[in-house]
Amino acid sequence: MPAKEMEIEIDAIKKNGFFKVATEVNDYQAFSPQKKYGLVVLGYDREMDGFDEIMSKVKQIQCPLIVYTYGKNTGEIMPEHLTVLNGYPWALISNFKLTLINSVFTTLATFSYDSTK
Question: Please, what is the average pLDDT of the chain?
């Protein structure tokens, strides 16, 4: 769910064919916890609205979350948002394209996913 476009990153993950990438949620505020997700990638921007609501939805479905900062240092994350992320055991911060792609593969390969939920 990008706060801004993540076309390069999404294409790189889609091309491998290992994972189904749900790209229908391009507006992070439209994210619905009723769907079955094995992983949520949130494109983070300091000015994004609704961070607490997104975190509430992610916590509701208890799935891994990767927060992608688009090449910016993790210091770019607002302190109050970092506190919330530190309180969620399945959160990971990624700041570069390759780190994001590696984190997606590693997380999906190691975290069990129940498609019946």
Answer: 80
